[in-house]
Amino acid sequence: xxxxxxxWRDSARRIAPLAWPVFVGQVSVLAFGTIDTIFVxxxxxxxxxxxxxxxxxxxxxxxxxxxxxxxxxPIVGQLHGAxxxxxxxxxxxxxxWVAFGLAAVGSTLLxxxxxxxxxxxxSPEVEPRVRGYLLALAFSLPASLLFTLFRAFNTxxxxxxxxxxxxxxxxxxxVPLSAALVFGVPALGVPALGVVGxxxxxxxxxxxxxxxxxxxxxxDPFYERYAIWGRGLDRPARAPLVAQxxxxxxxxxxxxVEVTGFAFMALFIARIGTTAVAGHQLAVNLVSxxxxxxxxxxxxxxTLVAQAVGAGRHHEAARLGWHALALGVALAVAMxxxxxxxxxxxxxxxxxxxxxxxxxxPLVAWLAVFHAADAxxxxxxxxxxxxxxxxxSVVIYVAALWGVGxxxxxxxxxxxxxxxxxxxxxxxxxxxxxxxGLVLAGASLSAVLAWVLRxxxxxxxxxxx
Length: 465
Description:
Helix 11 packs antiparallel against helix 14 (367-386). The protein contains 16 helices and no strands. The protein has helices at residues 8-43, 45-70, 72-81, 85-111, 114-120, 127-156, 160-183, 195-219, 238-269, 274-310, 314-341, 343-348, 354-364, 367-386, 391-413, 427-459. The relative contact order is 0.13. By secondary structure, it is an all-alpha fold. It has one domain. The longest helix has 37 residues, at 274-310. Helices cover 81% and strands 0% of the residues.
């Protein structure tokens, strides 16, 4: 007797409970940058330019290291699906050693940011503000990396709500801290620090999140099955460290290439002028808000696929992976079109500076296609990670996002060949090239995923058949 195969509705019902807490939590994380952008845009254009350059430098350092650490999620997800909780807890201990090493390297890079400043060719007015902002973030980076492990572990064991709750707590601390430190509180003797105040507020909020995460994992009986506490921190062990780095290094490299393809845009656009990079910062923040939806769906889909693979349910894993991709792209198309239509009033929420708004509007014109392609490549890459497939993403990202997006954008923006259309000189050239690069990355990764999922379906018969 043949029973009905679970379809789209069943997949959506399983993805949604994991996706919405990730969405809310990630929006709260993005709100850190949104709040800083809004506050600093109203403080001074020079500080907004410093925020764009400083944020690009920080993201370049943090994202690659974060990618190495989030490899914990598919590893723990498969162990969780296979019913091996103690081994999952031991993997967390080994990932902590990796985090400590990365934090030492990353904080040093942020405290001494000369390479980033040289790349951006920052003006004498902006440079000290960038340095102060990045120095504050050097103290924030260790907390951000430790919380990345907390998030990766809990996502893998289907507990995204506790992560969301702590991220919302961090945001609740961040808002008043940023307001006080950016604009100052004369009655309390707090000076107006501008963009540097944003960095200090972020550091304080992130360490608050880490302390809350530590308390949850110590007190909640849910974590007892993983034997995380009671024996001290495990010594570094070769096998689990190799597993973490074997998956994490290419994963970190792929995320680094993906993010720097856009972060370096800010550094190069900064050469054009303060207004250009300020407009770029507004457009980036708006696109980043939209990105939270496919990011949440990708996280949820990856978690479910990894757990199904660990349990040996390969046909179910393939179905969930493909449905996550289709659902995410459909939502991205709808959201991109809505924001494109409403781009003027949305950008006006950030600033009333007519010159900055005029610089941002042409960039957002690419948003509908940009966002749909971004959703496709993001979700496809997440599902591939659940199968521990990461190297192919590096190759595709280097060719599409660096080759087409970054190099092609530079060629157009600065009219290197002398034939760039007037409409594509400056920041719009970068956004056009990046959109083309994303389309190529999205199509390529989706094709790879389709091939992998076909293999998975052949690997195990349909249990409903």
